[in-house]
Every structure is written in structure tokens, then in C-alpha cells.
Design goal:
The protein has 472 residues and is of the alpha/beta class. The chain contains 14 helices and 23 strands. Strand 10, helix 6 and strand 11 form a beta-alpha-beta unit.
Length: 472
């Protein structure tokens, strides 16, 4: 639907951002209703309103009633930014796990092959290497279309974006035409008050991507893959380690120059290719197969993928930092017992001389997590380096005390200052060590007190390694 925008200069749905010559859209959310803030937007100068019911505003306010203001926001934003989605090739990725990793691998491969690709997802909006944080995995429709417009102006050809189930449910992706839709896997998540009523609704929302996609790339090893295939309206291409259009087989651990990963045979269109990816585990095989198929659809050659796939890194997701010659340093977002055990168990399969894990736990909440993190570390690690995560308003030493009392007989050292802890881990690395820095992942800050303090684990590792080389 096309709207008369009456010369407005911007669209807002947060009354605090309202101003003269802005249109205010009354969004209805799980916890708040934009209709309640219409007067505030009026007081700030807004005179054009889109609502789902009548508003009690002065006579000079123009109110347009629509059935669904979320759809209206998407349509308004798309029109306001001159349909930027039509000027990009958009790749959408949905699933419970693997969205962030797969989207970043695909974007990196496209960029390495000379195809300018931007990213939208958990790690933020990344355009030409510049990252802008996001509140949601898939931003609200206004921010999406604004970002698409920024990408077009920056010379981007592709956008690789994570599509959350909430984005489908709340019509954030309304109007977007996806060139490729990807399904990674599905398991119960985001079910409860304010999210999805049940698993059926969650699954149905995930499937909504494939009704909007020209090509759907589906992991057929997942139990819900047939449901996703049935929802697809365009071409369907499947990947698998069992039976599919693109199949991975002969999967083996691969390590080289501090890298830990997998190598495997990939068969597609009766041609078998060996692929390597510098992250371990079966999920890495699925991520690589998916990226292979998507990039082929985008005109990348098999030879280019073979060359560049081992060089892809995803910030904070089993991110191998190539800093030490004879030891491996890995940064990962694992911040609870389940995720930490998964990562440590995988690393253990590579028979490191020592497995060193650096971790802490957040303050002000999730106190039970401290015990489970410690117990997992004591099960797998040869040395634990216990430090701060985001201590908030809690005493970091008190949090560390709680963790240490559950480490059993595992040797450990402790540092309240996480920078000192990382420096210790790198400086004291032995040949053959694998050092896991767990918990912070892609985050570039620490929450200390009520402040976000800039903090880059990656930079600390690199700088410490440089100092070691200078001394030698």
C-alpha cells in the first residue's frame, strides 16, 4: 500500500524521538502500547499519526486508522526509504542455532570474492566493516529499511541477515523479498509469555521466511525440515550429512598452525569437493555446507570457497585468534554450563597438551550459573583461570569466591581484573596448549557498576602476544 506522507521528514514509533514533521506510529507490544504515548508524541510536535483505534488528540492531529500498525510501519518505512530492499540481494537465515555463525561465514566469503555484503544479526549491523550494535537479532522494520538504504548508499550488493521468529510474528520483515532463505535447525526456544504460545507457533513463524524466498536452502537432517520445505514457494535445495542435494561425508578433525577445525567431502551435482573450516564439531560441517550452497547461488565458484572458507572467522563464536605460534587461543561466548561443556568437550577431542579455560560469571543475577560453570570447568580443564565477566554492582572477588569453591581439585588461578587474566593466559601458554576465553565472545565491553567499560579480549590477546615476541 502506498501512503501520502504529507512531506514528513522521518517516521518514529518511540514518542521520545517525536518532533515536528515526523509521523508517529502506535505500535502494540507485549508490554507496552504506543497508543498510550500518542499525546506525548503530539506534545513534541508530531501531527501525523497511524493507529489501530481512535486517538484523543487535538483537532490539528491527522490520525490514520489501520488494521495492523506493525504492517503499516513496514510499508511506510519501505516507501520512505524508496524500496531499498529491491536494490539488494537479501539472504535470510532462520533457525534456533547457527544463524549468527552461518550468516557471518556467508558474508565473509562473499566479501572475499569481491561481492560487497553487509550483515544484520546478533553481532550487529556490519556495513563495509563498520559495526553498529542492534537491540534485537532482527531489528524493527524501520531500522531494517533504514539499514538497507545505508547499504545501498555504501555500495553493497548483498545483505545477509538473521531472521528471528519474533521478526516474522511481529511483521518486522513485512514486504522484504528474499533472494535466498536458509533453515539451519529447530528446537524449543522463545516459548512463553511475551514470545510464542507454543512450539507450533514458533515453528510456523520460522517457516514464514520460506514463503518469501526465491530459493530455500534447507537442512534436511532436522526433524522439522519437511515442514519448512512444504512452506517454501520457490526452488528448494537441501543439505545434509545423510541424504540431500548437497551431502557432507568422511568428516575428520583437522588441525594446522594453531587452527582447530574439520575437513570433509562435499558432494553436489555429482561433483565431490574437499572443504575445510577452522571451527570444530558437526555443526561446523552443517554451517559450511549451507555457506557453500548459498555462495554458489550467488555466483561464487567452488574453487573460491575452498580457498577462503578456512580463513573465515565469526567474532566471539569459537573465534580462533592467530596470535601464538605453538598454542591455540579461542574466544567463545559460552557463558552457561551447557554451552561451556559443549565447547570444552569439542576441544578435548583434539587432545591438547593442556586445556586452559578462562571464565567468570555475571553479577547481580543467575547466581546458580556460577556453580554449573565451575563444575564443567573442573570436569574438562587442566587449568582454570577464574576472573570477572560482567560483575555489575557485585564485588568481583565475591563472585570468584563462589566459583572457586566448586572447582574441586582442578588447579586454578584467579584475577578480579579480566585484562590481567587474559594477559596471564597468553604469557604462560605452553606449546600444545589450547586456551579458551569463555563468556564475553563478541562483546566489546564489560559491565562494571552501572557503566559499560570498553573491553576487547581479541586486542588484549594480540597485544600480549606482540609483547612476548618483542622480548624474545
Amino acid at each position: 500500500m502506498k501512503y501520502d506522507l504529507f512531506g514528513i521528514k522521518d517516521i518514529v514509533y518511540d514518542s521520545r524521538k517525536a518532533a515536528p514533521d515526523t509521523a508517529f506510529v502506535c505500535l502494540v507490544g507485549a508490554r507496552s502500547d504506543g497508543h498510550s504515548f500518542a499525546q506525548m508524541a503530539y506534545d513534541k510536535g508530531a501531527r501525523l499519526f497511524f493507529a489501530q483505534r481512535e486517538l484523543m488528540l487535538p483537532d490539528d492531529a491527522r490520525v490514520i486508522i489501520t488494521d495492523d500498525t506493525r504492517i503499516t510501519l513496514a510499508e511506510l518505512s519501505r516507501q520512505f526509504f524508496d524500496y531499498p530492499d529491491k536494490k539488494l540481494k537479501i539472504i535470510g537465515i532462520t533457525g534456533t542455532k547457527g544463524k549468527t555463525t552461518t550468516s557471518n561465514i556467508i558474508a565473509q566469503l562473499l566479501n572475499k570474492c569481491g561481492k560487497n555484503a553487509a550483515v544484520i544479526g546478533t553481532n550487529g549491523i556490519i556495513i563495509n566493516g563498520v559495526r553498529t550494535p542492534t537491540v534485537n537479532t532482527t531489528p524493527e522494520s524501520y531500522e531494517l529499511y533504514k539499514s538497507f538504504n545505508d547499504m545501498v548508499n555504501a555500495g553493497c550488493e548483498y545483505c545477509v541477515m538473521e531472521v528471528s521468529s519474533q521478526a516474522v510474528k511481529l511483521n518486522r520483515i513485512h514486504g522484504i523479498e528474499f533472494d535466498i532463505g536458509v533453515f539451519t535447525n529447530l528446537s524449543p526456544d522463545h516459548i512463553g509469555e511475551g514470545e510464542h504460545a507454543d512450539y507450533d507457533e514458533y515453528r510456523a513463524c520460522k517457516s514464514g521466511l520460506f514463503a518469501r524466498s526465491r530459493v530455500s536452502v534447507i537442512n534436511t537432517d532436522d526433524d522439522d525440515s519437511s515442514y519448512m520445505c512444504d512452506a517454501a514457494t520457490g526452488e528448494v535445495i537441501t543439505y545434509s550429512v545423510k541424504v540431500g542435494d548437497c551431502v557432507g561425508s568422511d568428516i575428520k578433525r583437522w588441525s594446522e598452525s594453531g587452527l582447530l577445525g574439520v575437513r570433509f567431502n562435499c558432494k553436489y551435482n555429482d561433483v565431490t569437493t574437499e572443504l575445510k573450516i577452522a571451527t570444530p564439531g558437526i555443526y561446523s560441517v552443517y554451517n559450511a555446507l549451507c555457506a557453500y550452497l548459498v555462495c554458489l547461488q550467488c555466483g561464487v565458484t567452488s574453487a573460491q570457497i575452498i580457498k577462503y572458507l578456512p580463513k573465515t572467522r565469526v567474532k566471539g563464536r569459537f573465534e580462533i585468534v592467530e596470535a601464538l605460534d605453538d598454542a591455540s587461543v579461542i574466544i567463545d561466548y559460552a557463558h552457561n554450563g551447557l554451552s561451556l561443556e559443549s565447547v570444552l568437550k569439542t576441544i578435548k577431542e583434539y587432545d591438547p597438551k593442556r586445556l586452559v579455560v578462562l571464565f567468570g560469571s555475571v553479577g547481580d543475577r543467575t547466581q546458580l550459573r556460577r556453580k554449573e560453570l565451575a563444575e564443567v570447568a573442573s570436569k574438562y580443564a587442566d587449568l582454570a583461570i577464574v576472573t570477572s565477566d560482567n560483575p555489575g554492582n557485585e564485588d568481583p572477588d565475591a563472585i570468584i569466591d563462589e566459583i572457586c569453591c566448586h572447582l574441586g581439585n582442578t588447579p586454578y588461578v584467579r584475577f578480579a581484573d579480566r585484562t590481567e587474566a587474559v594477559e596471564y593466559a597468553v604469557t604462560n601458554a605452553l606449546p600444545g596448549d589450547v586456551i579458551l576465553l569463555a563468556g564475553k565472545g563478541h562483546e566489546d565491553y564489560q559491565l562494571i557498576g552501572n557503566k559499560k567499560v570498553p573491553f576487547s579480549e581479541y586486542d588484549i590477546v594480540i597485544n600480549t602476544a606482540k609483547k612476548i615476541r618483542a622480548i624474545v
